[in-house]
Amino acid sequence: MKEFKTQKIDLKDYNGEPLFRIGLFEGQDFIDFRVYGEFSILNAEDKVIIPDIKSDLKWRVKIKESKAGSEKFHLVLYETFHPERIEEKLKLAQRYDPEVTIKVLGGDIFLGGRKVNNNTKYILVSGTYATELEAKKDFKRFQPEFNPSVIKETVKKPSGILEFFDAEYENSGEVKTAFKIVPKDVNTKIRLYNIRSFDEVLQKEHHRDQIFNGSIEFRFDNKGKLMVISEIPLETYLKRVVYSEIGSDLPLEFSKSLAIVCRSEVMARVGHKHLGDPYDMCNWGHCLRYYGEDFEDPNIDQAVEETRGQVIFTQTNICDAYFNLICGGHTEDATGVWEIDEAPQFHGKYDWKEVPKEFSTLQDEEIVRKWIHSRPDAWCNLRGIKAPPSLEQYKRYFRWEVNYTRKELEDIIRKKTGEDVGTLFDIIPLRRGRSGRLKEIELIGSLKNYRIRGELNIRESLSLDYLESSCFVVEKELDDVGTPITFTLVGAGQGHGVGMCKTGAAVMAIKGHTWQQILDHYFENCNIKSIYEINLG
After folding, report:
1. What is the pLDDT of residue 342?
2. Is residue 342 classed as helix, strand or coil in its secondary structure?
3. Residues 435-482: tens digit of each pLDDT
4. How confident is the model at residue 337 (pLDDT cuts 50, 70, 90)?
5. Is 177 helix (H, G, I), strand (E, B) or coil?
6. 4-13 b/e with 16+ CB inside 10 Å = b?
7. Pairing state of beta strands 108-111 and 8-10?
8. From CA 118, how far away is CA 317, in angstroms rounded?
9. How far apart (Å, rounded) are the C-alpha atoms in residues 175 and 167?
10. What confidence tens digit (pLDDT) does each residue in 352-380 have?
C-alpha cells in the first residue's frame, strides 16, 4: 500500500484559543466601515501601518487597481479517513477516468504545541472544469458507482492596491493585496455599511449593514473585487455561530449542545474546506452560518463559556459532528447523503423516545407515504409545543408540500440539469435512505428517461432553489388521457437530516433534558473532551 505523507498544521492562537478565518462576502466595489473602539491597521504581513487609532469616524476602503485571480473546479468522487479504502476506490474510479488522483487533506492538528487531532482525509479527485455547471454536467459519467460533488480550487491569486481613509482624511494609506482592522478588544464591534448581496432565486440585489467583532481583513476576491474576512478566536466565533444557526430565546441546555457540536465540526474540518482560498470557513450553510446581525444573548454567552473547549471525541479523533435544521422525525445515515465512510456516530435513528412499529422502516414506498402524510410523535414535531418565536418558525418544515404545473417543473429540470426529457410523465423513486430521503430517482419523459442520484442533486434539480429535503412523495393530477397536469411534492424535514436535529434538540431541552442527554440521543458513543486539555502525543 502506498504511504501518504501526513502534514502538520499548527493553529494560530489568541490567548490559547485557536484563531479561524471566516470568509464573509465578496464582489464589493468599495466598503464603508466604522469601528466602535480603539484599533490598529496592519498590512498583509501583520506589520502595523497605523497604531492605536481612537476614531469614531466612518472609513472607506476602495480599489485603486486590481488583477483578477482564477479558479478551477473538480469532481470529488469519494472521501475517507482510511488510506486502504481510497486505494481500493481509486482502482474502481480509474475505469471511468484514468486520470483520477488522490488528494490528501487535513493532517496532524497542533494547538499550543499539543497535538489535539488528526483529521487526515483522502479524497478522489477527477477533472478540471472552468465552471461549476460544467463540472456538474459530468456527474453522470461516474454514476451509478459514484455520486460526485464539486469543489473549487483557487489556482491564481488576485492582486492589486487598496486605498483606505477616514471621513476627514486625517488617516489614510495604500497597501498591496490586503490589510486588517485589529481592535484592541476582540469584542469590539465593527459595522460594515450597505453590503451588497444578490438573491439568485428572486434575481434581486439587497443592501444592508452588517456587524462583526474580531479582526476584519479587506482583500481582493478572484474577480478583482473586494472581499472581507473575519479573523476571530474560536470561542468568540462560536457565540455568533450559535445565534446564526438557530436564533435566541432557546434553553441553555440546547445552546450548550449546539455549541459543542459546532466546536467539534470546526476542529474536525481544519484543512478540509476552501482549497486555495485565504480563509478556513465560509459564513453560510456550506460550513457554519455566521451572520452579521447585531445581537446580545447572555444565554448563548453562558452556553459557550460553560462548555469552553468541549468537543465530541471518538476513540482516536474529534468527531465531525453534523447537524440539520429539522429532520422531519428521522435522522439519516451519513452514507445516505455523501460518498464517505460510515461512522457509528451518524447512524440514522427515529427522533423520539421509541420507534413506532408501523414506521420501523422507511424504505418501503407505502410506509413512507403513510409516514409523510401523518404527523407522528417526534421531538421535532412542534405540534402542541409552546415554542419560542425563533423555533416556532420552523414548524412549517416538519411536513411541507410544493406544487408545480408540469411545464414549470420541466423548465426547472432543463435549467438545473441541462437535460430535456420532453413531456414529464412521472418521477420514480428508486432508492431511499434510512430516513426515507431519496438517494436516487428516475424522470420518465417523452424524449428520454433521466436518473438523478444524490440527496442534494435531487433537491436542486426539482426546485428553483432547493427542495426542503429529499424525503418526499410525488402526487400527480392527470388530464383525460393520463398526462400529468400538475405535480405536488409532499415532504418531511428540512436539510440533509444527518446528525443532530436542531429543532428536536431544542424541544428535548424544553422538556427538561440536559445537553449530555441530547448529545447521547443524536450521537452514539458520545465522549466529551476539551481541546485545551487533549494531548495525543
Report:
1. 65
2. coil
3. 999 999 999 999 999 999 889 999 999 999 999 999 999 999 999 999
4. confident
5. coil
6. eeeeebebee
7. parallel
8. 6
9. 18
10. 999 999 998 999 999 999 999 999 999 99
For position 276, what pLDDT does the model report?
Answer: 84
What is the rounded distance in angstroms from the CA atom of residue 135 to the CA atom of residue 123?
17
Only one residue has cell 436535529, namely 501
Q: Are 479 and 497 in contact (CB under 8 A)?
A: no
Give the closest residue to 326 by CA, choosing from 257, 396, 264: 396
H/E element, 20: strand 17-28
Alpha carbon distance 292, 295 (integer Å): 9
Q: Which residues contact 287 (CB under 8 A, 6 or more apart)?
A: 269, 273, 281
Which residues, in sequence order, are CB contacts of 203 under 8 Å at separation 6+?
Answer: none
Tell me 358's DSSP state: G
Cα 93–Cα 98–Cα 101 angle in degrees, nearest 5: 70
As a whole number of angstroms, the distance between CA 526 and CA 515 comes to 11
Residues 6+ apart with CB under 8 A from 321: 260, 261, 262, 264, 265, 268, 311, 312, 345, 499, 500, 523
- In one-letter notation, the amino acid at residue 245 is E
Backbone angles phi, psi at 118, to 5 degrees: -125, 115
Contact at 8 Å (CB) between 324 and 495?
yes
User: Helical H runs in 96-218?
Assistant: 132-136
Find out whether 254 and 379 touch, Cβ atoms under 8 Å: no
519 contacts 264 by C-beta, under 8 angstroms: no
SS (H, E, C) 399-457: EEEEEEEHHHHHHHHHHHHCCCCCCEEEEEEEEECCCCCEEEEEEEECCCEEEEECHHH
Q: Over 80: is that where the pLDDT of 341 sits?
A: no
312-316 long-range contacts (CB < 8 A, ≥24 apart) are 312/260, 312/261, 312/264, 312/345, 312/519, 312/523, 312/526, 312/527, 312/528, 313/527, 313/528, 313/529, 313/534, 314/343, 314/345, 314/525, 314/527, 316/118
CB 15 within 8 A of CB 233: yes
How many residues appear in the chain? Answer: 537
Three-state secondary structure of 202-267: CCEEEEEEEEEECEEEEEECCCCCEEEEEEEEHHHHHHHHHHHHHCCCCCHHHHHHHHHHHHHHHH
**CA triplet 300, 302, 308: central angle to 5 degrees?**
100
Asked if residues 227 and 26 have their Cβ atoms less than 8 Å apart, the reply is: yes
Q: What is the DSSP letter of 285?
A: T
Inter-CA distances, 216 with 191, 213, 219, 285, 472, Å: 10, 8, 10, 21, 42
Task: Single out the residue of 319, 213, 314 nearest to residue 260, CA to CA.
Answer: 319
| % of the chain beyond a pLDDT of 90 | 82
Alpha helices in 438-536 (DSSP H): 455-461, 502-510, 515-522
Q: Taken in order 127, 128, 132, 138, is the CA torsion positive or negative?
A: negative
> Is 0.70 topped by the overall pTM?
yes
